[in-house]
Amino acid sequence: MSPTPSTPSTPSTPPPPVTPLRETYPLFVANRPRTPNLDLPVVDKFSGAVESHVPLADRATIEEAIAAAVRAERPMRELPPYARQAVLEHCVARLTARADELALALCVEAGKPIRDARGEVVRLIDTFKVAAQEATRIDGEVLTLEIAPRAKGYRGFTKRVPVGAASFLTPFNFPLNLVAHKVAPAIAAGCPFVLKPSERTPLGALILGEVLAETALPEGAFSVLPCALADVAPFIEDDRLKLLSFTGSGKVGWDLKARAGRKKVVLELGGNAACIVDANQREHLDFVVDRLVFGAFYQSGQSCISVQRILAHASLVDALRERLVARTRALVAGDPKHEATFLGPMIDEAAAARLHGWIQRALARGATLLCGGGRTGAMLDATLLEGVPADEPVSCEEVFGPVALLETFTDFDDALRRVNASPYGLQAGVFTNDLAKTMRAWDELEVGGVIVGDVPSFRVDNMPYGGVKGSGFGREGVRWAIEDLTEPRLLVVRTAG
Predict the structure, then answer these.
(1) Which pTM was predicted?
(2) What positions carry a catalytic annotation?
(3) Which of 28, 77, 120, 496 could be disulfide-bonded to 209 (CB atoms 3.0-4.6 Å)?
(4) Which superfamily is assigned to 274-460 in CATH?
(5) What is the pLDDT of residues 305-350, one digit of tens each?
């Protein structure tokens, strides 16, 4: 069937009164605020109005920040764990106090519905809490070296030491929590850093910079530098930086890796996450559908683990389809400042137009439009498609928007193979009650994480998170990020002649 595309609905409940954002926010160079210009407007992604202005760092400022980070390597390395923990605990307290401002910034600059923006602020704070705990347990081990007569009398020990100055590049879609997943582990590990937040969503990182500037971190420990893309090369290519951590698109990420030289690189890239719904889920379909709709359309699908491909067993696909369509059509779209809004705008009109074109291309090749499909500016309807050819971009690439595809399978192992046919491998979801199938999915799926009983969009901030294949390498989640930000150093002691 091909229903008429819907238009965004407008909630009747008016937005609650909020404290407006400040007209300007400074950038940070070596822990200190600066406002050399106000060249970057911060635009409300729903209304198009300019809500604030922030500075753009030039090449000279970026060079100054990198040099300061390098000078801060020893002071940060020598900062004792309890002092790092105190900085992180200060962040927890101050970010909690500024939670409303942070949520409003998210709502405005990212177009994130206000309820979801509050949720991201909670995750931001949780990430700093976890980092505060981990800061005092970065341990080594004692090694048994006497594995042969020649090693008699030798003992071995390891400890983890900071890699040094790090470079962080973060995207627009989770401008608080994805920044937190780089900054908080760096402080816990004792690494100074330079951070370039997305120029589309700089406010959250700059507010965090204000909080960090209140602490006793050594001079040069951090810089937060919105900048033009034309000036970003030093973050990538400067050999004084020992680690580059990038979250964003695959095309950009692999190019950065090729340019990064000798430094360590951590890439958290895109995906086109699949979710399998097994035959034994008929009694749980309402729950499954609620989770699928949330996973597909939360934040207008602008998440690298949003539900993009739904593989449903043939015995329940008809019932699943009917409920999916009904739940999707019921989503409230519109102004993200309204409490009832679930679906806000995409990051800009160009992103919405690109994905709308992919939808039209799939329909031209015989796909069926189950619901949605319409676009008004940056607002793209929550869209369900069925029968999409596997080589269409909306199927094999990352849609990064509010579009999900329905497919049918009859054999569970075939469903696993179809999930693996993707060039990406970030996370996958499996709804099944069968333990053997659970373990088979864990063994066979070529992804960084398998989520059983829920959608691939599930993430808790202390779990290892990252992908394989085109989705990158390395892991975030505080403890695992600390491993990337530190190196093992061996000590061998000869205790007998």
Answers:
(1) 0.93
(2) 268, 304
(3) 28
(4) Aldehyde Dehydrogenase; Chain A, domain 2 (3.40.309.10)
(5) 999 999 999 999 999 999 999 999 999 999 999 999 999 999 999 9
